[in-house]
């Protein structure tokens, strides 16, 4: 690609982004995106492996070109003084940062309805949600505005919206990608993740952002991920199908799409085996103790002194903290901070937090038991249903949390996992999930390449 | 309800979060719903034996520390560039209890 082509790509992306404005997926004004895209296209080095590729970025990842708000009033207008390592790596590879995408406030939610800047619409049915919390990134990729976008995962926030919107979402192993510059929510769970219109688009972005980083001590000292070649067959792969992910009340359309994908895996030559992950049903209660506990600690920094837009007219320091946080955080963030503070408080620590950590170890043991018996990958549905209606689950927090019941186990255990489109039900996309072994994303991506080519994902299942 | 409005008030104080009195009952109901839901972990973990000797997440077994050397902050601009007021190496901040006056001190 020449510089002229990169400039043309930048202009075309700016135009496409302005055409999908009604989705409310992008938080950056169209004029600012156009200006930044053109400046980046001129500055990017043509030797980069992503030269000229526009990548939208979830607004909880720090950038110098655009403000970083986490879709929260408390950070409205916040300009980060540094950029995330993943952004530096993308720019070094010649990618163009195509603005900041809408999300559930501080990445807390499964529908992108909890944004202080309004909900994101599903690109195929505007009465439905695109999933969350990376709903803005997923909607933009699904609408064809950008070929790839960065999101972040704490409990499934990339795979779940990828499944709802019919795109590919990859969460790497915890420690594969630097978290430096990703605004912390649950530090033992958070991982920058990628959405793409195809397995290859998502995988090549993941390959660029992966690898060691001296600014994040939890980032593994490993070389960047090497992309596998596209396989013709999957002979030699053993794929486990865990019965706990196919409950009797699983949406019948989702089950049909999964059955078709499992048949395709068999036809590709993979050995398919029934397995059991017995503690799966406890993943969501475990997650909703650990994640709010970590969030209550991480979000303490937004107090109007260290970070956050300060409340006016206060006279004491305590009042400054409380009014800044009370006015700046939205209802879901406030609720999670309160739950996190509750489960960590002295009377309840053993009853909730310690039990959740023990359950987390049991969930990890479940996966080790399966992988130790020769299984290479696990295949499941990504979500129990297709995209649900806006407003359907906002009244009951637990109903909303259950949208992540098949994705949270990979976050709690740090395993790599991805969602890819496997069919449609009444026009709405269904996602199939592959869960891999630690740091073996290449195996997972290889199987996804083959599955993607074998399944007519745009057809009714 | 497992969480009372009074407990919500107390937890909100611990979390440095102002909560409107009229929302206390709703918040208590929502928190009770969540706390009751996660309480199932108590019984579930009771009989099972988790191997806690192995790390749960597959990242580094032990967090490696950076070398303890003075280095330049990886910031885009100077530290003074993003402070509202800065003098002689110090941030100038409002005096406690004087937020409305605009008076600043080092």
In short:
With 461 residues, chain A is of the alpha/beta class. Chain A has 14 helices and ten strands. Chain B is mainly alpha-helical and 106 residues long.
Share of β-strand residues of chain A: 5-15%
Largest sheet of chain B: 2 strands, antiparallel
**Percent range for helical residues of chain B?**
25-40%
The backbone outline of chain B, from C-alpha atoms, is flat
* Helical fraction of chain A: 25-40%
What topology, given as strand order, has the largest sheet of chain A? 2-1-3-5-4-9-10-8-6-7
Name the biggest interface. Answer: A-B, 73 and 50 residues
Number of strands of chain A: 10
Class inferred from helices and paired strands of chain A = alpha/beta
Number of helical segments with 4 or more residues of chain A: 14
Task: Give the averaged pLDDT of chain B, no decimals.
Answer: 79
Sketch the major β-sheet of chain A.
10 strands, mixed
- State the low-pLDDT regions of chain A, or none: none
SSE string of chain B, helices as H and strands as E: HHHEEEE
Briefly note the structural class of the backbone of chain B.
Answer: mainly alpha
| Overall spatial form of chain A | globular
Approximately how much beta-strand content do the residues of chain B carry?
A: 5-15%
Walk me through the structure.
The complex is a heterodimer of chains A (461) and B (106). Chain A has 461 residues and is α/β, with parallel strands linked by helices. Chain A has a domain at 284-350. Chain A has helices spanning 3-19, 30-43, 85-92, 135-142, 159-165, 199-209, 252-267, 283-298, 317-328, 331-344, 349-372, 397-401, 408-413, 441-454, and strands at residues 54-58, 96-101, 148-153, 168-171, 191-196, 238-242, 271-275, 377-381, 417-425, 428-435. In chain A, strands 2-1-3-5-4-9-10-8-6-7 form a 10-stranded mixed beta sheet, sandwiched between helices. In chain A, helix 1 runs antiparallel to helix 2 (30-43). The longest helix of chain A is centred in the C-terminal third of the chain and has 24 residues, at 349-372. Chain A starts with a helix and ends in a 7-residue tail after the last helix. The model of chain A has no long low-confidence stretch (mean pLDDT 96). Chain B has 106 residues and is mainly alpha-helical. Among the domains of chain B are: 5-47; 76-106, no CATH class. Chain B is built from 3 helices and 4 strands, in the order αααββββ. In chain B, the strands form 2 sheets. A two-stranded antiparallel ribbon of chain B has the order 1-2. Chain B has a two-stranded antiparallel sheet with strand order 3-4. In chain B, helix 1 packs across helix 2 (24-38). The longest helix of chain B is centred in the N-terminal third of the chain and has 15 residues, at 24-38. Chain B is flat. The mean pLDDT of chain B is 79. Classes of the chains: A alpha/beta (461), B mainly alpha (106). The interface between A and B is large, with 73 and 50 residues.
């Amino acid at each position: 690609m020449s510089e002229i082509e990169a400039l043309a790509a930048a202009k075309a992306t700016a135009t496409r982004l302005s055409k999908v404005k009604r989705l409310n997926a992008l938080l950056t004004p169209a004029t600012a995106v156009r200006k930044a895209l053109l400046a980046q296209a001129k500055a990017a080095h043509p030797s980069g492996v992503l030269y000229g590729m526009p990548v939208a970025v979830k607004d909880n990842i720090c950038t110098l070109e655009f403000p970083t708000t986490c879709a929260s009033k408390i950070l409205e207008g916040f300009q980060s003084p540094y950029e995330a390592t993943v952004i530096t790596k993308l720019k070094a590879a010649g990618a163009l940062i195509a603005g900041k995408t809408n999300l559930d406030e501080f990445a807390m939610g499964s529908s992108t309805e909890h944004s202080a800047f309004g909900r994101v619409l599903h690109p195929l049915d505007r009465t439905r949600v695109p999933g969350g919390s990376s709903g803005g990134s997923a909607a933009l990729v699904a609408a064809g505005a950008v070929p790839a976008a960065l999101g972040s995962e704490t409990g499934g926030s990339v795979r779940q919206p990828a499944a709802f919107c019919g795109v590919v979402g990859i969460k790497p192993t915890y420690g594969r990608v630097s978290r430096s510059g990703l605004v912390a929510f649950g530090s033992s769970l958070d991982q920058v993740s990628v959405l793409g219109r195809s397995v290859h688009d998502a995988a090549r972005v993941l390959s660029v952002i992966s690898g060691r980083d001296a600014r994040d001590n939890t980032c593994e000292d490993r070389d960047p991920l090497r992309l596998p070649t596209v396989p013709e067959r999957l002979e030699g792969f053993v794929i486990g199908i865990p019965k706990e992910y196919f409950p009797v009340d699983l949406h019948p359309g989702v089950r049909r799409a999964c059955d078709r994908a499992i048949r395709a895996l068999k036809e590709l030559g993979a050995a398919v085996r029934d397995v059991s992950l017995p503690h799966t049903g406890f993943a969501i209660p475990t997650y909703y103790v650990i994640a709010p506990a970590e969030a209550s600690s991480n979000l303490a920094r937004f107090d109007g002194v260290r970070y956050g837009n300060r409340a006016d007219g206060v006279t004491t320091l305590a009042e400054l903290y409380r009014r800044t946080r009370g006015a700046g955080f939205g209802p879901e963030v406030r609720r999670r901070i309160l739950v996190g503070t509750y489960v960590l408080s002295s009377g309840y620590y053993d009853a909730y937090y310690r039990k959740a950590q023990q359950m987390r170890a049991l969930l990890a043991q479940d996966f080790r038991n399966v992988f130790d018996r020769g299984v290479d990958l696990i295949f499941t549905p990504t979500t129990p249903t297709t995209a649900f209606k806006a407003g359907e689950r906002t009244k009951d927090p637990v109903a909303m949390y259950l949208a992540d019941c098949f994705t949270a186990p990979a976050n709690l255990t740090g395993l790599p996992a991805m969602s890819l489109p496997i069919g449609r039900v009444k026009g709405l996309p269904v996602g199939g999930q592959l869960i891999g072994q630690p740091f073996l994303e290449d195996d997972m991506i290889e199987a996804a390449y083959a599955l993607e080519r074998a399944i007519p994902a745009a057809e009714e299942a | 309800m497992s969480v009372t409005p009074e407990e919500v008030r107390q937890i909100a104080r611990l979390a440095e979060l102002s909560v409107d009195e009229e929302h206390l009952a709703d918040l208590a109901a929502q928190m009770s719903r969540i706390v009751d839901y996660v309480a199932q972990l108590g019984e579930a973990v009771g009989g099972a034996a988790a191997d806690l000797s192995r790390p749960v997440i597959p990242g580094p077994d032990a967090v490696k520390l950076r070398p303890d050397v003075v280095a330049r902050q990886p910031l885009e601009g100077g530290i003074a560039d993003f402070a509202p007021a800065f003098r002689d190496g110090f941030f100038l901040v409002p005096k406690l209890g004087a937020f409305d006056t605009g008076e600043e001190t080092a």
